[in-house]
Amino acid sequence: MDFYLAAVIQALCFGPLVIGLFLSMKIFNIPDITTDGSYTLGAVITAVGLSNGYPPLLTLLLAMVGGALAGCCTALIHTWLRIHALLAGILVMTALYSVNLVLMGRSNMPLLDYPDVFNGLGLFDNTDDNTLSVLLLFVIALLLGMGYLLRSDFGIALRATGDSEPMIRAQGVNTTRMKVYGLALSNALVAWSGGLMAQFQGFADINMGIGIVISGLGAVIIGDTLINFLKLRAMLPMLVCVIAGVILFQSMLALALSAGINPNLLKLATALLVLTIVALPRVGGVLQLAKR
Amino acid sequence: MLQLQHITKVFNAGKASQVAAVQDLTLRLEPKSFTVLVGANGSGKSTLLNLIAGSIYPDRGSVLLQGREIQRMPDYRRSRWIGRVFQNPLMGTSASLSILDNFRMAALRRSTKWIKLGTGSAFRSQVAQKVATLGMGLENKLTQPMGTLSGGQRQALTLLMTVMADLDVLLLDEPSAALDPRSAREVMEIANRLIAEDHLTALLVTHNISEAIRYGNRLIQMENGKVIRDYDEPAKRKLDHTAVVSWFDYY
Asked: A19, A38, A192, B113: most buried by Cβ count inside 10 Å?
């Protein structure tokens, strides 16, 4: 398979994940580390579902339900027990490691013998084209669905909860409930990505979620930079920028690998790439100050 | 009608930093009355407003709205009947949402926010009409994020948003304190007009003596968590700036 096509397919698998992270981190202002656990949970539920003969699409829906429950746990720990969202996320993520092991019964499950969603349509003879077309359909549905949701009355209340809690409470909104809905939705999307990735890679692994939040964050930051650069205000174009961000991010990683970087250093390269993306605007600001 | 009966609120109870912010306070706001509340810093004005709005709950006593006890009701539920304009213009609106989206939330204050689009052309023209009454030219900028507006513009819009759905009580928590003199005057004039037009029951907290004299038909002063002066409309009319300033001459 073409190296860069694989990067784009992988980026599209991450599509729901980055939209979920955009929701929790940019719209809700909550650094949600549950992501690392709910991504793996999505893959594990998909793997267990497929191995039990469930249709591939149904396993993805079940994965989303699982992710939503994980998000609910984080939100309830954060809101009811008033524990910082970061710690609540870490606690749930840690607990999910055991949950995932128990669900899968082992640390790795190959899925090559089971059907997947990508060949369900069978539009093309080529597997890559089928995978790409199904993923594009998923991403378009995701963008349209989330674009509509975030523009709706419920979505406006969701966005206002992350921006100004006193204001939206004064407008009759229970912000505790909104945080539960928001984190449940965000983690359902993350788990959807986990399920997609498991079906695309042909296996689920207990460690596949480690550091995924950093990769997702890098993509969200690129997307956010694009949003600011283009001065976008409407929700749908913003979400498109986030998807463009993940494609750019994965392409940069693919470029690093094709340049001969040791695959063992991939996580280090990812961290350095995110650091560069985060630090660049600040370095620019410091240089401008130094010129004065 | 809003009634507060024997309300007491103590912060940091049992600690060295214990403060009795409101002490056995009883107050009654008649329907369609506009009460102005003054008092030195720490006199309990803001605590009183928070107790009415539901941001904090009293240790003792009851809050009755139209005869119904609401002292344990959370703020977001009380907001169906009690509107509030904050001192900080940035708190009453959401900076990242457009003016239109902010108004949509205000229009739905008494209802559930469902997954449906509500900011169509009909709603837009309704908001444009309302915003045009401010005379600030904002009716053509409804898709602009609220965060791009000045403090005065945001506070004026907050006022309009607060009275958009039916209200029993309007709480004004020093709405002009963070504004320049001209914007402050504009915002207070808008508030006064809206209160008169909609026949609202209002409670204004202010440090500005001129505002305290100019607006409202009742003036009360708080000190150490208690109401120490209460002037009805005829008595209030006789007060002048010097007289009210003298209330604060402790030293």
From this structure: A38
